[in-house]
Amino acid sequence: MNKQELITAMAEKTNLNKTNSEKALNAFIETVQEALESGEKIQLIGFGTFETKERAARVGVNPRTKEKIEIPATKVPAFKPGKDFKEKINNALK
Q1: N or C: more exposed end of the chain, with fewer CB within 10 A?
Q2: Sign of the C-alpha dihedral, residues 23, 16, 41, 93?
Q3: Which residues are 42's β-sheet partners?
Q4: 3-state secondary structure of 43
């Protein structure tokens, strides 16, 4: 499912038009990004948790030249699905 398909599905479920569904989705995405940028964690009970994790600096290997390279520390966004979300997916796959 791509973004336009998601907007269409949201519009059908909420009885909003596609324009308002797109605004709602964009607002959600921007809010999550801004919260993670400022170091906050977002917990949606039954769905999951969005948070920022720190990845330590490490030494990697360039596969083409086999040369060792320094990979700097970085922050990465992470999503951990909630219990209800995981159960729903597992039940759907059975």
Answers
A1: C
A2: negative
A3: 50
A4: strand
| Token digits of residue 40 | 């906050």
pLDDT digit string (tens) for the chain, length 94 residues: 999 999 999 999 999 999 999 999 999 999 999 999 999 999 999 999 999 999 999 999 999 999 999 999 999 999 999 999 999 998 877 6
Tell me the whole-structure pTM to 2 decimals.
Answer: 0.80
**Tally of CB atoms within 10 A around 25:** 15
Q: Which two tokens stand for residue 45?
A: 């009970």
Instruction: Provide φ and ψ at 43, rounded to 5°.
Output: -110, 120
d(CA 47, CA 87): 11
Please spell the DSSP secondary structure of 15-29, one letter per residue.
T--HHHHHHHHHHHH
